[in-house]
Amino acid sequence: MSSDSERFAEAEDGGPQPEKHCGHGRGGMGEDVKRKEDQRFITGRGNYVDDIKKPDMLHCEIVRSPHAHARIENIDKSRALDVDGVVAVLTADDLREYDLATMPTLMADTQDVLVNDKVKFQSQEVAAVIATDRYTAKDGAQKVVVDYDVLEPVVDAEASLEDDAPLIRDDIEDKEDNHCLDWETGDEEATAEAFEEADVTVTEDMLYQRLHPAPIETCGAVGDYDPGKDKLTVHMTSQAPHIHRTLFAQVSGIPEHKIRIVSPDVGGGFGNKVPIYPGYVVAAAASYVLEQPVKWVEERSENIQSTGFARDYDMTGELAATDDGEILAVRTDVLADHGAYNAVAQPSKFPAGFFNIFTGSYDIDTAYGSLTAAYTNTAPGGVAYRCSFRVTEAVYLIERMVKVLADELGMDPAEIRRKNFIQPEQFPYESSTGWNYDSGDYEGALDKALEMADYDHYREEQQRRIDEDADKLLGIGISSFTEVVGAGPGKTCDIAGVEMFDSAEIRVHPTGNATVRVGVQTQGQGHETTFAQIVAEELGMDVEDITVEHGDTDTDPYGLGTYGSRSTPVAGAAAAVASRKVREKAKAIAANELEAAEEDITWDRESGEFHVAGAPDRSVTITEIAAGAYMNHPSSEEPGLEAVNYYDPPEMTYPFGSYIVIVEVDRETGEVEFEKFVAVDDCGNRINPMIIEGQIHGGLAQGIGTAMLEHVTFDDNGNVTGGDFMNYLLPTSMEIPNFETGHTVTPSPHHPIGAKGVGESPTVGSPPAIVNAVVDAMSHAGITHVEMPMTPDTVWAKLDEAGLATDPADSISLEFEDQSSDTTADD
Amino acid sequence: MTNTREITLTVNGTEHTIDVEPRQLLVHAIREELDMTGTHIGCDTGNCGACTVLKDGEPIKSCLMFATQADGSELMTVEGMEDLPEARGDLHPLQEGFREEHGLQCGYCTPGMLMSGKALLDENPDPSEEEIREAISGNLCRCTGYQNIVRSIEYAAEELEEVAAADGGTTVASGTDTSSADAPSAFDSEFDCGVENCCGGPTTDRNHDADTGGEHK
């Protein structure tokens, strides 16, 4: 923290600002500024990768394996090359000439760009057809003849670790099984002792099923090599263009200054667009070799079946507690499915991401966690789907287990949380697994949520329905989660060796407006507005006078990208610090303009003006200072008014919240209806409440998708049976209720503007609240868990198990009596 | 291209005659032959609705129809919204609503949502929340959770009512040349999206539902 105060010594108000600003009418902190980016999107003028059209552009179609596990015996390109308009057909043999047959994953595994020898998952990339248009490319792809020697696949992590399981990774020297990695955290012995001595222990098995981030825009790229400039430009759906440029340079051998990555408008990312996929490499390589632009854009099924999935953690949770509900210890064991390659997307020193934050919002002295990861014949992944590197799985585990414990002890789940919360005076708080929580007031958020939800009323209503044997049961679920977001610091967090800092550069122009460039990249988060608000706040400018640019490695400062809710905690801090650097220089210019000593110049946040101390009338605006910087600069300073900051965060930030979900469970059909959905979030100081609320809504909808609908499934032959939008069900407007949002404000003490990240809190925090609610509807009958996705048949089976299901046969026969014979059932 | 056919599409009031392969999807003709990239592609199976356009006033999923099937029809895409009379030289009230109510984040589903919203308000100028939710249920959004999209369409309905009142009290039912009264409507028996078991039509359109067996996917 001392280095922190030094870092911001140049700012007179360097510490976090309490939530006192209201933007001062200039669109600064705390104002609901309408988004600058909207104009182009609502008028059809967005520019996504598939919208890019270049002269002589070719199209790439990837030939994918229909088998999950198969050795390639032969690839015959000849018939494809005979198709009029097919320019090239690439296989691993062709890429090998350029040393591009394989590529490193973000966890330093080696993945085939095009299959070298053996297919390891269905839809793996086997060959690429380059043709004059997308239809011809598809024609060509259909005529590539691949001879496969089909092998037995294994798509289940547990089965893959059995002795007789087929070996997937025979490309790894001396590899004899499908074991990927082991990991542990905490104190095993102390935890075992705590469990032995506890009054009560509970255990529950739960699967966090395989999901896919499924942004509505799939992944794609346009490789565009310019032989005149000897420069390769790749327009790609990238959440992290700078690190992608570095990886492209490392893999291809092309010098990094000869590569430009442009991430244009991106139609949602949610972690899906953090890794590098073979299609990007093929489009870039084909353009380089053919010296023509090459476009590759996935279809939806390719996106779900071959790009980074999320979760797939099969977890056992255990809690040890006293009779009166004090949690003494938590223990967990996880079997993780990493797919065919270890391609989890997280900081390299964290093989299980930030899963070891599974002590959650609670002051638990003792904890132990162990994890085994396996290879399976499924797509590689384990990306951080709208979450900070496995914190989602951790929150699900602890918030589910607290409900299990509350039911075991017959305690109110709100009360047991209150009893175990880390208290406000305990911050900064070091957890038993080594995390340093920056700030929090968990009880404050829970109290607010309980009040908004009218909790006591619904508890009474719940009991009434049980007493009256009502057709629809009521369930009330709570989740009081804590997130850990904003990676770095760089010393502990890196991506492929590059420290996880981020950046902002501000150029104030002679006429008083500014261009801000940041190292992070937006996929809908509204950076062009929120970063402008930070700079407006810190420089006293009007938000309308600031343009934010991002996503172009040729012009933007290097940064690690947008995922893990790190844009505001890291690049947002950089924008504030860079603004304060500009403000310091502005003081010297103001002194020159006002003919006063620099030390006598102060800046007034309210008016946004610089004035002589004690003489507010002698003032200049940032516009006047900008003119001075270029037209009348003081001899003590360089001309111009610019600053750049590369911000290495001293710690992560810990946003938190309490969600309360009230559901009705139909005892006849197993259907779950949302009666009330309350979300209270605390992300520290708030930059744009409208955007925050929008992010909360979207994340809650994804949480509902997770809890109720979504699951990437496989059959025993390795076929993906949940691999398109007909089978992988995203929630529609009919499944998503209206949300009631609220907030508390507990600023981060180490962040320059006291902000924390927020975009992922709802996806992380809501699934356990929803599951807890459904379980709560049946817990009086002994149900302790329902697996996600909680489809009606899953829920009905639990109702039946608990003796709560009413017999649908009765009402069906009644319906037959009532209806004419030719009517077919429809929803 | 070996086998092409000349077709005429009137898009946002402008007539275009183009040569297309019979197999070319309408969405590709719009995006790649006519260079109007506001209409997006998100799923290839008719589930996501990012490619929704109005064909003779009815919302259809342009990834589920061949361009040749749209020969002679009047299409409307997001690019035409600012030219509508109710936009009054600026943004259409729906576009304004999406901005005012924060009805978009990444923007990818937005053009399709605007088209479904327009089709709804043309038919039903004062829809309930339930009717709005049903009308956009064929359009997936992964960012917003839909709540603000509903608000955006409600905003537009109110604005349009004011526009209508200012224009002399007549309801603005459509007022566009792409959905004029004499254009064939979906349930005048001629409409066929060309894909078996799927009409791609609006879920709000009960008659249309009935014509196609009541199944909408």
Give an overview in words.
The complex is a heterodimer of chains A (827) and B (217). With 827 residues, chain A is an alpha+beta fold. Chain A has three domains: 2-31 and 502-647, Aldehyde Oxidoreductase, domain 4; 49-151 and 219-297, Aldehyde oxidase/xanthine dehydrogenase, a/b hammerhead (Aldehyde Oxidoreductase, domain 3), CATH 3.90.1170.50; 309-486 and 652-801, Aldehyde oxidase/xanthine dehydrogenase, molybdopterin binding domain (Aldehyde Oxidoreductase, domain 4, 2-Layer Sandwich), CATH 3.30.365. In chain A, 29% of the residues lie in helices and 24% in strands. Chain A contains 21 helices and 33 strands. In chain A, the strands form nine sheets. Chain A has a seven-stranded mixed sheet with strand order 3-7-1-14-11-12-13. In chain A, a hairpin with a 5-residue loop joins strand 4 and strand 5 (110-112). In chain A, helix 16 packs across helix 17 and helix 18 (689-708) packs across helix 19 (761-778). The longest helix of chain A has 28 residues, at 567-594. Chain A starts with a helix and ends in a 9-residue tail after the last helix. By secondary structure, chain B is of the alpha+beta class. Chain B has two domains: 5-76, Ubiquitin-like (UB roll) (Roll); 82-186 and 195-208, DNA polymerase, domain 1. Chain B contains six helices and five strands. Chain B has a five-stranded mixed sheet, with helices on both faces. In chain B, a hairpin with a 2-residue loop joins strand 3 and strand 4. In chain B, helix 2 crosses helix 5. Chain B starts with a strand and ends in a 6-residue tail after the last helix. The relative contact order of chain B is 0.16. Mean pLDDT of chain B is 84; it is low at 172-217. The chains are: A alpha+beta (827), B alpha+beta (217). Chains A and B meet through helix 2 and helix 18 of A and helix 1, helix 2, helix 3, helix 4 and helix 5 of B. Chain B: Pfam families: Fer2 (PF00111), Fer2_2 (PF01799). Chain B: One of its GO terms (molecular function) is metal ion binding. Chain B: It comes from Natronorubrum thiooxidans. Chain B: InterPro entries: 2Fe-2S-bd (IPR002888), 2Fe-2S-bd_dom_sf (IPR036884), 2Fe-2S_ferredoxin-like_sf (IPR036010), 2Fe-2S_ferredoxin-type (IPR001041), 2Fe2S_fd_BS (IPR006058), Beta-grasp_dom_sf (IPR012675), Diverse_Oxidoreductases (IPR051452). Chain B: This is Carbon-monoxide dehydrogenase small subunit. Chain A: Residues 1-39, 807-827 are annotated as: Disordered.
